[in-house]
Write a structure and sequence with these properties.
By secondary structure, the protein is mainly alpha-helical. It is built from 11 helices and 2 strands. It has one domain.
């Protein structure tokens, strides 16, 4: 799900967007059409459901759901940390998963944070970037939103190796969990919309540029090169 990445991107990119053509977006015409469809579906379906969920679901249930899916993400983040040769981070994430899965009752609670076992968000797209694969063109995915050609390829691996996908054989239950996760993530973005609408002259360009900046920041673990021209990962 790309909503979480978008959340971080918007927080980092707090200025108006330049709407000139971006060389990293050669498929802009197609991307804008997909963006418009995604936005329409979001406003008509996903956002209203997220509002009802936020307003009426018990706070304890919302927190437990958020923790549960966060624990699954931590497991995959630990695997990607190992792929990126980060032993300390891999050990910390593995500790988080072990503590939250056992003491935290399958991840519904988060005692690991009280033990200073911190989250580190990793995915296979970032792993590919770590090993030098260029990002390729910017790409808007149907429903899932902003991405790049590299990140979209990594996203396929993320989905295929997601513990929820493989460990739950009951298809309606598995699909239901995906829907609940999507609604929970969308709930976290409700407070950003007014700020986005106030800041962005062109919503599409703002989200695109924010996403690309955020991904470059993530690939280099917060220390991106000063010039895009020197970016070996192709961000």
């Amino acid at each position: 799900m790309r909503f979480g990445v978008l959340l971080c991107a918007l927080m980092l990119n707090g200025c108006a967007t330049n709407i000139q053509a971006n060389p990293k977006d050669p498929w802009e015409s197609m991307n804008r059409k997909i963006f418009e469809i995604n936005d329409s579906v979001d406003q008509a379906v996903v956002r209203p459901v997220a509002i009802v969920y936020k307003d009426y679901a018990p706070d304890l249930a919302q927190k437990g759901i958020n923790n549960f899916f966060g624990n699954l993400r931590d497991l995959w983040s630990a695997v990607n940390s190992a792929f990126q040769l980060k032993p300390g981070q891999t050990a910390e994430l593995t500790g988080r998963v072990l503590v939250n899965t056992t003491v935290g009752v399958l991840g519904l609670f988060d005692p690991a944070s009280r033990l200073d076992l911190n989250k580190h968000r990793e995915d296979f797209g970032k792993t590919l970037g770590y090993w030098g694969l260029p990002s390729g063109p910017y790409l808007v995915l149907p429903f899932f939103g902003p991405s790049t050609l590299r990140d979209a390829s990594g996203f396929v691996v993320d989905v295929e190796l997601n513990p929820t996908f493989h460990n739950i054989r009951d298809v309606p239950l598995r699909n239901g969990l995906y829907v609940i996760n999507a609604v929970d993530v969308r709930k976290g973005l409700l407070g950003l919309e007014d700020n986005l609408n106030a800041i962005a002259f062109d919503k599409y360009s703002f989200i695109r540029d924010a996403y690309l900046q955020r991904r470059q920041y993530e690939i280099y673990d917060g220390n991106p090169p000063e010039s895009d021209e020197t970016d070996a990962a192709g961000e």
